[in-house]
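Support request, please re-run this one:
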Amino acid sequence: MHQEPKPSIGEASSNDPAFRLPGLDWMGSHAFKARYAVQPGVDRDFGTWWGPRHNQSISHHLATLDSPTGLSYAYDSTWDEYAVLAADVPATTVEAVMSRALNDDRHMSVEGFAGLMADHLAMSAPETQPTTHLPAGIEL
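Re-run finished. Output below.
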């Protein structure tokens, strides 16, 4: 796996091609396929213009056309590596995040895209509300 040089303090910038935000586990194709058991299926490609070098693609892998969820991942063509953005993600979530990303920054980092996806998933998750009433059958 590649190790990009870390910029010194004050030099770090998302516009710097050597700068990659931490958080994603980049791996070679064999490790990616072994770890995530990626089988033939349907991959929706969302373009290869992401990241500071405009060489990263984002895709959503579904087992079949009718699968409700799939694996969202990125591919870096320079390093020939993959990173999982989120697993078991509904296609509607990926499409909503993609729309927002295209409006915000067409060349955002895949780490930024993963962050948007995590935010979107957190907002759409059902919240557990604490109950303020006693269950039926309990008398005071």
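Confidence is low (pLDDT under 50) at residues 2-21, 128-140. The CA atoms of residues 49 and 60 lie 16 Å apart.
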